[in-house]
Amino acid sequence: MIVPVILSGGSGTRLWPLSRKNRPKQFLALVGNTTLFQQTVERTQKLGDARSPIVVCSEDHRFTVAEQLQELGLGGSSILLEPAARNTAPAIALAAMQARQNDPEAILLVLPADHLIGDETSFVDAVKRATPLAAQDWLVTFGIRPEAPETGFGYIKRADAVSDSGFKVAKFVEKPNAEAAAQYVQSGDFDWNSGMFLFKASRYLEELEKHSPAIYTATARVFATAQPDLDFVRFDKASMIEVPDDSIDYAVMEKTDRAAVVPVSCRWSDIGSWSALWEAADKDADGNAMQGDVIALDTHNTLVRTYERHMVATIGLDDVVIVATPDATLVAARDKVQDVKKIVDQLSSAGRSEHQAHRQVYRPWGSYDSIDMGERFQVKRIVVKPGSVLSLQMHHHRAEHWIVVSGTAEVTCGEKVFLLTENQSTYIPLGVTHRLRNVGKVPLELIEVQSGSYLGEDDIVRFEDVYGRA
Amino acid sequence: MIVPVILSGGSGTRLWPLSRKNRPKQFLALVGNTTLFQQTVERTQKLGDARSPIVVCSEDHRFTVAEQLQELGLGGSSILLEPAARNTAPAIALAAMQARQNDPEAILLVLPADHLIGDETSFVDAVKRATPLAAQDWLVTFGIRPEAPETGFGYIKRADAVSDSGFKVAKFVEKPNAEAAAQYVQSGDFDWNSGMFLFKASRYLEELEKHSPAIYTATARVFATAQPDLDFVRFDKASMIEVPDDSIDYAVMEKTDRAAVVPVSCRWSDIGSWSALWEAADKDADGNAMQGDVIALDTHNTLVRTYERHMVATIGLDDVVIVATPDATLVAARDKVQDVKKIVDQLSSAGRSEHQAHRQVYRPWGSYDSIDMGERFQVKRIVVKPGSVLSLQMHHHRAEHWIVVSGTAEVTCGEKVFLLTENQSTYIPLGVTHRLRNVGKVPLELIEVQSGSYLGEDDIVRFEDVYGRA
């Protein structure tokens, strides 16, 4: 009966340079081998009778969401594409309308896609304990038992018990100062506001209509424009832009008299900074959290992440964060990592791309990585997923050499269609229509050498595209 | 009359990861656009009647030395190739024997290739002031007027004046502790031991024979095996290994009664560590020395170097050294950089290559950079200098695709010889003899995609090689 709703709209610049606008943190394997998004989805599948999730995400991330769900065997989930970001109240409302359509009694488990939960058993248990409350028309929020007087989170104050494990909410409080936070923790009556909820879709919509009717009405107008497109559901952008931007906390939870909190201790983290990731990560005896090829001498309480074929050596560091990626490296004092936002802002105002795109770029058909670049050439490593096909396309300013290094390609070049396999190459002259398809069962990897006077990604004319980009 | 002798045998691991065994720090542009070696050579050309230099270096660096001299228009210099490193006393003896052969009265100006001199006018002036002393058979060492009570250098104590600007050496003292160093500086009688000398070749050899006859005799035996080969002079390795390993300080300077010191203030640095480079570098208002694409927030007294197409962002750092290279990044506390040696040792004992070779590898004909690598393929960017030619070669385990992206190549593949120009490609099958030549006037750049089950550099059979490597 529980329908998981995964809120995946975050743009996650606080974990730059690993997290960037085109592939924010929920889609990265920050802890373990699967992504935060996948871990969140998998968590919902541990509930007894969970349905496949409704995901709400930005249009830009639709192929990433679809692929990451497919990897979990959850193709066929509903993926609601927000044509504009309007915060959590409208996002959850769209999901609630979608769920109510299928099942008027549906209970939603609303989870941000980018949270980490160390103790999933406790979390699942809390959801089970919260379910009767949701069935009794409470809007349940999960309150995290505070481990420290954090000033980076909002707090929820408990009032009277409404069940064995739930309490009426006395009040929501904003991020406190250190003194207030210490007092909250000491009192024992406060929990961290996690942004995770359990309630009936219908009940949420009723409360939204009652307390924030403008959001309700505008969102209902958006939902009326829903256009299913395979797993995706698209909405009208102009209508979406009309929706007031607001969080579920402001729009509903702080106003309703049906808010309940179910406290839980489950080693939760919103991974809101590199420092938070360091806190949540497994650490060695020196307090270091290392990932990749790292040699550390006399280094303590430090987080290091690097990438393939790149080692990082550290000497004499304490409380530092080092994140190396192919095109950008961050080195920051651990207690200053919140200023990474300033770096991202600087990059943005300088018209650069490093805050937005990784060197490796994901596409619905696979990915490419710009491995070298010169004045009149660029070299890319291209990976095409089995069965996938790029658009039928043409470039005005560049010719391309393709060398297959793994797998088998079906190449269309002008009128000709032919197969190319490992260690074979071909040439696509400037101006000639071409297409690349992986007809095999294993990933197709090829090296593309582009040659020409202009090598921008926008020199592309698409004639046909299975992903609707033509 | 003055013959510069450039000692270029250092392996320079203290500036890892920028400096590595195959291309140590003297061959890098650490300050300014030319290398330390080139700056040292150019310095000698500012003396009135300087000859072209005698360079003493390792066989491994012969092409680098030849190329860097050529860039200065000093092709035709003598390059003495040490088949084994035996410290400065034998290296200078070989140079002295070479110089004496041409001119029995030759005066040698002996300079390590990896020192920085900020005030060249003062240095040149000191050499001029020292020349009469050298002519009077003094072995002159240049004493750097101490700027601080450094404990990382040896000191020289002055005795009575022997000219307007020179003093008899009272004694040489080893690297002192902090207390002794402070006392030396305060006394005004001590200078830093720079390792730069001026003396007659004949006089040095006489003193060497007198005080360290074993070194003299063994080195004379090596010199008897000299084999000129264009600019290079080669020596017998077995004979070289017989030479006792010793420094000029121990073998001669501390023992002779003809040692004189000429003090000089010339902003000298031996750039013995990243910290020393930071000291010597131009710094911004925050005390930062930055090179490359760097964004620094709230960062002070920090050195950052990065490479092409890679940005480094720093937040909240003080007194840190960050050196990013394509395959390895160092992040170290500035007062702990001497431990970089331990990193290099760890890499060495783990049988890795990052302490020895850069990703970009220099060859006599140009260079290559391994820009990507997979299970059965490797991608290289190859640059061939105008007029240069690779060996006629064959591989047992790999085929190669070549795509020219700049310049013009003459390709030999089996029986065929043909030209390949920008945006043209060819295929070299496994087992086929081939050769690549830059017949043009501009550098030839090509992308090579190797495909095969074994891609090591040692899968090469050379049939002919203009550089004597066949």
Automatic annotation (TrEMBL), chains A, B:
Domain MannoseP isomerase/GMP-like beta-helix: 292-347
UniProt feature coiled coil, ranges: none
Protein name listed in UniProt: mannose-1-phosphate guanylyltransferase
Family statement drawn from the similarity comment of this UniProt entry: Belongs to the mannose-6-phosphate isomerase type 2 family.
EC numbers, comma separated: 2.7.7.13
InterPro entries: GMPP_N, Man1P_GuaTrfase/Man6P_Isoase, Man6P_isomerase-2_C, ManC/GMP-like_b-helix, Mannose-6P_isomerase_type2, NTP_transferase_dom, Nucleotide-diphossugar_trans, RmlC-like_jellyroll
UniProt cross-references to SUPFAM superfamilies, sorted A to Z: Nucleotide-diphospho-sugar transferases, RmlC-like cupins
Lineage: superkingdom: Bacteria
One Pfam family from the record: NTP_transferase
Record pathway: Nucleotide-sugar biosynthesis; GDP-alpha-D-mannose biosynthesis; GDP-alpha-D-mannose from alpha-D-mannose 1-phosphate (GTP route): step 1/1
Source organism of the structure: Luteibacter jiangsuensis
Keyword Membrane recorded: no
Molecular function per GO: mannose-1-phosphate guanylyltransferase (GTP) activity; mannose-6-phosphate isomerase activity
UniProt keywords, alphabetically: GTP-binding, Isomerase, Nucleotide-binding, Nucleotidyltransferase, Transferase
Domain Mannose-6-phosphate isomerase type II C-terminal: 351-465
Ranges of residues in domain Nucleotidyl transferase: 4-285
Record field: catalytic activity: alpha-D-mannose 1-phosphate + GTP + H(+) = GDP-alpha-D-mannose + diphosphate
Enzyme superclass (EC): transferase
